[in-house]
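About this split. The held-out portion is used to measure sequence recovery: a designer receives only the structure tokens and must propose an amino acid at every position. Recovery is the fraction of positions where the proposal matches the reference. Here is one held-out target exactly as it appears in the evaluation file.
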């Protein structure tokens, strides 16, 4: 276990992972206890109390000092850092009093919309720069320089351009993501292996066929890994945007909870964001395995076609849910109902394909 770049067995990996989590939680608990302040059985005297009306200021201060000195410790106040137990106990309160599910769905939806526009714009601009030398010479250096923009400093401009609604949040998030995505896409285009291009040109493929059969699969298969890296960045920007406009979302909820000194609830929401980020990362891993199976499986197995079809339907439904309200006026209920039915059908197709895929992988 102490060898340079050594490997752990599966049992060691699981055991050490659990031990590490326990140590971190224990350290968190210890620091919380150290920062806690004692809670005293003491209440400051009320100036409206009739019994105190005849006392002068010195007598009142003396009585208050004596009462404070004789106060007994009845517990601890965890104002700076709550314990893990207090954080866990905060979730029922968040569900009952602070509409946590509504804020979570709102933030996730804005996050996904921001990803959609960022990916769409990145592929359009990145494709032009990566494929066409004219655009590469004109815009590659300015686009690379945009990565050094302090995105959080641009919040005022986005509020001026897009207002204070959700459009501002989505635009801010999309901009924060695609300034990193565009150079990555250009790089992935340049990394396509020359042997693959030579092969398709030898077979008589034209530019369009080469783009569809070589460039697009190669760029997308690597780009899925790049999306995972940007997950944390996307949540950082969406929280910043929601704090600026307190109309809903986890960022807005964190802001108001912090203003009311609800540190246990703040930490509970932060842990929820971490959990969502982990699930989002796992989703990208799943999509990478199913949409680009050549990276993970040596042979083609049954069920992949059904799974891929279901995933493409879900992605198409999501894209239409973002684009249709912009292009045409559709009642929200009708749009939600249609999207829900198509998504359920696609999920059923994915489950059916996963069952076949599981059997096929066991046979291999």
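Reference sequence for scoring:
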């Amino acid at each position: 276990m102490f060898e340079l770049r050594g490997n752990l067995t599966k049992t060691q990996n699981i055991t050490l992972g659990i031990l590490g989590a326990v140590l971190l939680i224990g350290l968190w608990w210890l620091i919380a206890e150290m920062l806690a302040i004692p809670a005293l059985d003491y209440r400051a005297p009320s100036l409206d109390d009739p019994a105190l009306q005849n006392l002068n200021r010195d007598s009142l201060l003396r009585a208050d000092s004596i009462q404070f000195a004789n106060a007994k410790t009845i517990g601890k106040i965890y104002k700076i850092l709550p314990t893990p137990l207090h954080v866990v106990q905060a979730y029922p309160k968040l569900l009952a009093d602070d509409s946590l599910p509504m804020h979570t769905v709102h933030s996730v939806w804005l996050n996904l919309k921001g990803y959609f526009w960022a990916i769409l714009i990145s592929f359009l601009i990145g494709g032009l720069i990566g494929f066409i030398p004219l655009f590469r010479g004109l815009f590659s250096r300015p686009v690379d320089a945009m990565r050094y923009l302090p995105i959080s400093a641009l919040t005022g401009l986005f509020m001026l351009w897009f207002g204070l609604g959700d459009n501002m949040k989505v635009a801010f998030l999309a901009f924060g993501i695609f300034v990193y995505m565009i150079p990555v896409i250009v790089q992935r285009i340049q990394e396509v292996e020359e042997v693959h291009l030579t092969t398709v040109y030898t077979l008589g493929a034209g530019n369009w066929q080469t783009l569809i059969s070589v460039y697009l699969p190669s760029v997308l298969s690597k780009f899925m890994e790049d999306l995972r890296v940007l997950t944390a960045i996307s949540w950082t920007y969406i929280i910043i945007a929601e704090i600026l406009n307190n109309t809903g979302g986890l960022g807005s909820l964190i802001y108001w909870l912090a203003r009311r000194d609800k540190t246990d609830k703040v930490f509970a929401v932060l842990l929820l964001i971490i959990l969502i980020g982990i699930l989002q990362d796992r989703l990208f891993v799943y999509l990478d395995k199913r949409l680009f199976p050549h990276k993970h499986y040596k042979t083609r197995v049954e069920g992949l076609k059904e799974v891929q079809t279901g995933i493409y339907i879900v992605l198409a439904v999501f894209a239409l849910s973002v684009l249709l309200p912009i292009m045409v006026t559709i009642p929200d209920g009708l749009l939600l109902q249609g999207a829900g039915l198509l998504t359920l059908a696609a999920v059923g197709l994915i489950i059916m394909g996963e069952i076949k895929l599981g059997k096929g992988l066991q046979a291999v």
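Annotator remark: Residues 100-131 form the longest helix (32 residues).
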